[in-house]
Design a protein that fits this description.
Layout lengths: L4 E2 L2 H13 L4 E6 L5 H13 L2 E6 L9 H6 L4 H8 L6 E3 L3 H4 L17 H5 L3 H16 L3 E5 L3 H13 L5 E5 L19 H6 L2 H14 L4 H14 L4 E9 L13 E9 L2 E9 L2
Parallel strand pairs: 1-4, 2-3, 2-5, 3-4, 5-6
Antiparallel strand pairs: 7-8, 8-9
Helix pairs in contact: 7-8, 10-11
């Protein structure tokens, strides 16, 4: 069974109108393609909540800080559609750049506060690109639910904030990070890791989980984070962008663990940037 693919907003809205008239609920799963089991888990979560599921595939140029990174991002639409078909998704929305950003496009959605620091501090404009395209996809799909992975934890906060602030009637669902057997968080960029880098990469999750356990047991935050940064460098990471403890709900920096928090990190192996986060409870 093949998965229907639509490429225009008009075609997507025609489907949505038909489903709405039938009284059906709709979920959307925004992706940039190169689908892995993490993405497929989001589709499964969407299928559990709604009668109809739209998966979007658009490599959004506005959220890339590097032209080389944009060019290197894998484009695997045919393989992605084949992975989605058995799950029961209803349609793949795969617009081109001009359909999403018509000539003369001049609007940007910018979310302050939760977008600052962490990835936002190291990737200027990234979350403006995310917020703009996600706003468009939510409005284009008219979805009741939208599923996003917790691996991109700051992004999840940005999306929740924009939906709330702009009164978009959608429930944003955060879904757990899916990991390889050795703990490495699934990412479309993992396929670019060399054999030696792939051996090092799982240490990011190991060190975060270890730090989270020590913090939960009462360890002092600054010393624990400093030790974790040193461990990452000693294990072969080339650069640490950040490793921080943030409030689970507000993303405000946390100096002492008194309420649920997240330990978030971004680190580089060669030219590949890995991110991860783990929950920390007092």
């Amino acid at each position: 069974m093949s998965l229907p693919i639509v490429r225009t907003v008009h075609a997507l809205r025609t489907l949505v109108t038909r489903w709405r008239r039938a009284g059906e609920t709709i979920a959307v799963v925004p992706t940039m393609g190169a689908l892995h089991e993490g993405h497929l888990s989001l589709v499964s979560a969407a299928l559990a909540r709604a009668d109809r599921v739209i998966v979007t595939l658009f490599v959004n140029p506005k959220q890339f800080n590097s032209a080389a990174d944009l060019a290197a991002y894998p484009r695997t639409e045919e393989e992605d559609a084949a992975k989605l078909a058995p799950l029961g998704a209803d349609v793949l929305f795969a617009p081109d750049g001009e359909e999403m950003y018509a000539p003369g496009f001049s609007t940007t959605v910018s979310v302050s506060g939760v977008s600052e620091g962490l990835c936002g501090g190291h990737r200027p404009g990234h979350f403006d690109g995310v917020a703009t395209v996600v706003t468009k996809l939510l409005l284009q799909s008219g979805a009741d639910f939208a599923c996003f992975g917790e691996k991109d934890f700051q992004q999840l906060h940005v999306v929740r904030r924009l939906a709330r602030d702009l009164d978009i009637p959608v429930e944003i669902i955060g879904c757990p990070t899916v990991r390889e057997g050795d703990g490495l968080a699934l990412s479309s960029r993992n396929v670019r890791l060399s054999d030696s880098q792939r051996e090092i990469a799982p240490r990011l999750a190991e060190i975060l989980f270890d730090a989270a356990a020590r913090l939960a047991a009462g360890a002092e935050a600054d010393a624990t984070l400093a030790a974790s940064r040193s461990a990452l460098m000693n294990d072969g990471f080339d650069m640490i962008e950040y490793l921080e403890l943030r409030d689970e709900t507000t993303l405000a920096p946390v100096g002492r663990l008194t309420r649920p928090a997240r330990l978030l990190a971004a680190a580089w192996l060669g030219d590949i940037r890995l991110i991860d986060n783990v929950a920390v409870s007092p």
